[in-house]
Structures are given as C-alpha cells and as structure tokens.
Amino acid sequence: MKCVRRHPWPMVLLTIGLQHLIHLPAQADEYIDPGLRSISPSRLQHQPGDKQPKPRSSQSPVAAVPGKEDTQTLGLEQAVRLAVDWHPSISEAIGTLYQQAEGINVAEAGYYPQIAGGIKGGYNSGYGSDASSQSVSISLKQMLYDFGKVSNAVEAARAKAARSQASILLAIDQVGRDTAFAYVEVQRYQRLIDIARQQIQGIGGIVDLAKQRSDMGASTRSDVVQAQSRAEGGMATLQEYKAQYARWQATLGNLLGRQTSPQVTDAFPDSLNQSCNTPVITDALPAVLQAAAQRTQAQAELAQAKAEAYPTLSLEPSFNQYLDNNYDSQNPAIDRTQVGIFLNLEVPIYQGGAISARSRAAGYALTAADAAEDAARLQARQGLSESQAQTSGLTRRLNSLEFRETTIKEARELYGRQYLELGTRPLLDLLNAEQEIHQSRFDLANTQADLRRLQIDCLYNSGALRRAFGIDHSTIQHVEILP
C-alpha cells in the first residue's frame, strides 16, 4: 500500500490567515465619521447626509474636567460657557453619539464580505462504516442584492446618530438655561440681602429715635417695643434671604463644577433684554430635530422591515481542509482540500410573523415620531407665548414699582417731620412708611430678576440660547457647535 506523507503547512497557513482576519475589525472600530463631530441645526433639519470619508481617530468621549478654581467675578456668559464645557450630562450625550456612530459602521459592514472560519470534528457514516473526521473550514458571504435591507439599516443608523446630535444640542440648552437661572437667582438674593440690610439700618434709626423720645418722656414705651419688633422682623427676613443666597450659590457652583461658590456681578447683558421679542424657529429646536430624526429612523426601519419579505442574493465561496489522515478511508476520491463557490438566493418563507410584526412596529414608531414633533412644536410655542405675556405684565409692574418707591420716599420724609417736629404723627405710621419703602425695593428686585429669568426662558424656547451666549461657532467637549 502506498504511503502518502501528510504536510502540516496548510494548517499553518490557515491559522495565519484566520489570525489576520480576526484582527481586521479592531482597526475598523477606530473610525468615526468626522461629520458627526460637527453639529448644526440647519443640517439636522434635513435627512442624514451622505457618507463621508472617515479618518482614523483614537479620541474617546471623556468628560472634560472643570478648570482651575479662582475667586474672580464671573459674568453671565462666562458662567454659561464654563458649565457647558464640562457638564457630565453633555458628556453623556456625546458618548451616546459616538455609540451611534459605531452603529453606522455596523450597518455599513453589511456591504462588505462576511468571513467566518472554524474547526469541526466528529463522526460521519457512509460506505458501510463509521469514521472520525476533523477539518478546518472558511466561508465567505458577499451580499449582491437584498432589495434595500442594508441600505435602509444604514439610513436608520444615521438617523439614530442625528437624533443623538440633537440630544447634545438639547443637553447644552438645558445646562445653559439652568446655569443662567442659577446665576440670576444669585443676583436676586444678593440684591435682596443688600436691601434687607438697608431696611435693618433704617428701622434701627427709628428704634434709636424712639428710645430717645421715650427717655425724654415725649413718647410711650410701646413705641420702642413696636420699633424693636420691626427690627427683629427685618433680621428674620435677612436670614431667610441669606439662606436662599447660599442655596443658589451652591447650585451655581455645582453647575460650574466648583467646590467653592463663585462671585457674580449684578449686570445683565443689554442684548438679552429683548429676547422675548425674538421669533421662534421651531424647525431648529433640538426637541423638534430629535422628533424629525426619530421619524427618519422609523421610515427607514419600515422600509427595512418590508424588504425583509424579499429574497437576498449573495455569493458564497467556501474552503474546507481535512486535518486527519483518515479523511479518504471511506471514499478514496475525496480530496483533502475542498473549495466551492455558490450563488445563494435566500427567501424567507415563515418566521412566525416576525416580519409583519416589525412592519407594524415601525408604522407605530412613525406615528409616534409625528406626534412627538407636534408636541415639541406646541411646547415651544406655548412656553414662548407664556413668557412673552408675563414679560409684558412684569414690565408694566416694574414701571409702577419705580413710581411707587418715589412717592413712598416723600411720604416717609413727611411722616418723619410730623413725628419729630409737630408730634402729630404716630410712630407706627413712620415704621409702616419705612417698611413700605423697602418692600417696594424688594418687589422691584424680584420683578427685575423675574424679567431676567423670562428673557432666558424665551431664549431657550426660541432656540436662540446658544447664539446669545456665544456657543455657536465654538467647540464644546471636542464637538463643534454650528448655527
């Protein structure tokens, strides 16, 4: 019997080839579409763009670290920029975007050959006896035509990425709004504390005056008690405002990523005072962009589900290499190496109703996306109209309060002269006039702060907050923000 020598080199070549193929995806994972790192609401209003070249990038979405703390006074715009430059909610949204970017790569992989390899061993029967068999096999599957299954999967993945981009804009707007609100509240209570101290000083002067007149016998002891009671009430008001001031300072510090509370100015940019007169552009609002991307995704998934009912044509070469020496013991005509190439037309026949269920689910998702877009537009219009109405009313109230403070000042001066010189005015009227002056100042400070909050709210609901605070045309946590 002729002895045939079995060479080990085919196994070595197959092992090297398999190792090379295994390492190929590791490089593909490092590719992210650069267009996804540049976010523009005007571009997001359209469907996801065409595929662009994807340069290699090793950058990972790591949250930015807050800058070195200092005691400098922060302006409103500076505080908003510091917050969005580090806030983890924005980092989370960016991480989700990178996840969806890799989802695009996964979907686009359907255009390329799918290579699989393995080693199998076992027993086969035939030709009157059983024998063991071990072999290495490699198979390749290249999709030729699939009625849009892969293309719609890619479109759905790009829509998910666009939705993540809109989520980043929404996170920036929310962090910017919350930071501006906290800044205004710190301004509010900073001003209220100053007024409360002025009130204590004013009532303290009346207390001293009442004591002097009581010691001289010109007034009763009850005047001193009333004045001291008002002074204690003023101290209680001051402590309440101090507590609120500390609270909002802590809130602002947390939004800025600082352990120490920053100092703020009392200034408010003039450019923001007419924010409620800005027309709303609902198509560019992040929530509307999210809903639009959700609709695009649902449309692509619906088309993909319908394509699943059609056949897929693919080219499938295969390679099989026997490892044992008994591969031809039952059939001497069998070669150790077997190669084949086939055209495969695969048609789904029955999957338990999965295809029709996916189609219905995508149709419901499309309906939900339309409703979500309508809801986002309605919420923006409602929020803006409410803020505009409140702004109009508070502006008129502000003018009334300024006039009221002037008239009360004149009344206090008159009451003071009548109490000291003529003795015809009781101390209670003087105390009431002093408190009314400071109450009008409290109301004035609160109204001004409320107006500032409403201006910021208008910016948020009209989609103009990023432009107002200089975030457009800037880079936030490695992502470029464009108009």
Structural commentary:
The protein has 483 residues and is α/β, with parallel strands linked by helices. The chain has two domains: 75-112 and 146-304 and 357-481, Outer membrane efflux proteins (OEP) (Up-down Bundle); 113-144 and 312-346, Single Sheet (Outer membrane efflux proteins (OEP)), CATH 2.20.200. Helix content is 60%, strand content 13%. The protein is built from ten helices and nine strands. The protein has helices spanning 9-28, 41-44, 76-84, 88-108, 149-216, 221-256, 286-307, 354-422, 427-462, 465-468, and strands at residues 38-39, 73-74, 114-126, 129-145, 263-264, 312-322, 337-346, 474-476, 479-481. The chain has a four-stranded antiparallel beta sheet, covered by helices on one side. A three-stranded mixed beta sheet has the order 1-9-8. It has a two-stranded parallel sheet with strand order 2-5. Helix 3 packs across helix 5 (149-216), helix 5 (149-216) runs antiparallel to helix 9 (427-462) and helix 7 (286-307) runs antiparallel to helix 8 (354-422). The longest helix is centred in the C-terminal third of the chain and has 69 residues, at 354-422. The termini are far apart. The model is unreliable at 1-29 and 48-65 (pLDDT under 50).
